[in-house]
Amino acid sequence: MDQAKKKRLEDRGWKIGSASEFLELSPEESTLIEIKLALSLNLN
After folding, report:
1. What is the pTM of this model?
2. Burial 18-42 (b: 16+ CB within 10 A, else e)
3. pLDDT tens digit string along 5-36?
4. Closest by Cα among 22, 44, 12 to 33
5. Maximum distance among all Cα pairs of the chain, rounded to whole angstroms
């Protein structure tokens, strides 16, 4: 996302962050999800 768009959104009250921040995941939970995703992509 470009800086101008990010600033416009933040000025209007939006918060910019990651899915992990939104879901309040611990680093371990984030890692587990990434591992599961990587494994699922290799099933085909």
Report:
1. 0.60
2. eeeeeeeeeeeeeeeeeeeeeeeee
3. 999 999 999 999 999 999 999 999 999 999 99
4. 22
5. 44
**CB distance 32 to 40 below 8 Å:** no
Q: Which residue has the tokens 């099933």?
A: 43
If you search the block for the tokens 């959104």, which residue do you land on? 9
SS3 content of the chain, % helix, strand, coil (to 5): 65, 0, 35
Structure tokens at 18: 């990651």
Amino acid at 7: K
Residue with tokens 């699922």: 40
